[in-house]
């Protein structure tokens, strides 16, 4: 029986609560598939700052690089929110993504039939929605230099962030998106701001060239403002959406409204080689941390993506996803999914339901 080595980075806030439950589900899925998973838990984010003065130590990074996959919770919280702080929890996550070279962030958005009444949107607008956002993750506004904040000679403060993309960065994430679309409905929607930004004009040029090489997949280009409207007015038309780092970050948070809660959306960050990075798209939710009421499903579904993309365990990944579906169909809900207060399950109890369905 082979053993896969998984680095567990629970992080801050509700991160430790939801990752602990994801581990329970992963262990059962692995046992069903005749595999062993060995977990090593390490600090990242605010808890790492408190312990080591940095959001990600070189030692933790080295362990992540040597692993088969990395499962993460969330980072940050009010304790570390000073905008003038030289060290911030998010720096650990950004460095981890860059160093692991996980340039393609997959964020599936699936509306479960059992949760149609949870979204604030009309049922007819969201029924059957099943789209995939492929977000470029290691370039763009979040990483390019110069990035500085200075006080000018006349006493004014000035901040600079630079939006920069190389052609190869756009090409590789576009090719990834087309590969994903080929196994879905064969439609790619590329989102940019080409009417204003030079980087977006390069983006559109490169994506168009990639599309011409793959005529079996249809391609459309839309501006990000149009995309933000279509996500809410006609999301059923969308299949695979590919976009840059910042636009992808914003649009997928918006897309959580379709699913009813950010607690439902997993993600996988992948590169051309090396370990993948898996995490729910939600944050550390400090307002409910320690209460045992966080929705674990996004973390559990991130674990399913880990099995699929990093360990090649497709049957076990599907077993988890189907168990989540059956759990929701049976009416089990955490507080974010708006049950009556007396019926809301704890984080652990919701996981127990998923385990029972496996």
Structure description:
- With 358 residues, the protein is of the alpha/beta class.
- The protein has 2 domains: 1-118 and 265-358, Isopropylmalate Dehydrogenase, CATH 3.40.718.10; 127-259, 3-Layer(aba) Sandwich (Isopropylmalate Dehydrogenase), CATH 3.40.718.10.
- The chain is 41% helix and 18% strand.
- It contains 12 helices and 12 strands.
- A 10-stranded mixed β-sheet has the order 2-1-3-12-11-4-5-10-8-9, sandwiched between helices. It has a two-stranded antiparallel ribbon with strand order 6-7.
- Helix 1 (15-32) crosses helix 10, helix 1 (15-32) packs across helix 11 (314-329) and helix 1 runs parallel beside helix 12 (347-357).
- The longest helix is centred in the first third of the chain and has 18 residues, at 15-32.
- The model has no long low-confidence stretch (mean pLDDT 96).
Strand order of the largest sheet: 2-1-3-12-11-4-5-10-8-9
Low-confidence stretches: none
Provide the CATH superfamily of the largest domain: Isopropylmalate Dehydrogenase
What is the second-level CATH architecture of the largest domain?
3-Layer(aba) Sandwich
Per the CATH scheme, the topology name of the largest domain is Isopropylmalate Dehydrogenase
Task: Report the biggest beta sheet as strand number plus sense, adding barrel if it closes.
Answer: 10 strands, mixed
Summary, kept brief:
With 358 residues, the protein is α/β, with parallel strands linked by helices.
Q: What keywords describe this structure?
A:
Isopropylmalate Dehydrogenase, 358 residues, ten-stranded mixed β-sheet, alpha/beta
């Amino acid at each position: 029986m082979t053993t896969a080595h998984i680095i567990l980075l629970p992080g801050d806030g509700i991160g430790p609560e939801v990752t602990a439950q994801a581990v329970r589900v992963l262990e059962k899925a692995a046992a069903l598939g005749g595999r062993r998973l060995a977990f090593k838990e390490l600090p990242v984010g605010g808890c790492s700052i408190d312990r080591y003065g940095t959001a990600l130590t070189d030692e933790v990074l080295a362990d992540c690089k040597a692993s088969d996959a990395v499962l993460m919770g969330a980072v940050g919280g009010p304790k570390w929110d000073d905008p003038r702080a030289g060290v911030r929890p998010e720096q650990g996550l950004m460095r981890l993504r860059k160093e692991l070279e996980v340039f393609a962030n997959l964020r599936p958005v699936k509306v479960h039939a059992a949760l149609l009444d949870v979204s604030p949107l009309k049922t007819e607008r969201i029924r059957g929605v099943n789209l995939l956002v492929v977000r470029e993750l290691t370039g763009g506004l979040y990483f390019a230099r110069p990035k500085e904040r200075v006080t000018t000679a006349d006493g004014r403060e000035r901040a600079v962030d630079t939006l920069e993309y190389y052609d190869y960065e756009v090409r590789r994430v576009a090719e990834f998106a087309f590969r994903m679309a080929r196994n879905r409905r064969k439609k790619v929607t590329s989102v940019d701001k080409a009417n204003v930004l030079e980087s977006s004009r390069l983006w559109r040029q490169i994506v168009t060239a990639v599309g011409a090489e793959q005529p079996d997949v249809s391609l459309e280009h839309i501006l990000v403002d149009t995309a933000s409207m279509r996500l809410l007015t006609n999301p059923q038309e969308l299949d695979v959406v590919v976009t840059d780092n910042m636009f992808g970050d914003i649009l997928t948070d918006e897309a959580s409204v379709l699913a009813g809660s950010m607690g439902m959306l997993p993600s996988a960050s992948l590169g051309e080689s090396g370990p993948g990075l898996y995490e729910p798209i939600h944050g550390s939710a400090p307002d409910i941390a320690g209460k045992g009421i966080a929705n674990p499903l996004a973390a559990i579904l991130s674990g399913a993506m880990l099995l699929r993309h990093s360990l090649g365990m497709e049957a076990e990944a599907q077993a988890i996803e189907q168990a989540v579906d059956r759990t929701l169909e049976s009416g089990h809900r955490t507080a974010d999914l708006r049950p009556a207060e007396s019926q809301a399950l704890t984080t652990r109890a919701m996981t127990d339901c998923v385990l029972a369905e496996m």
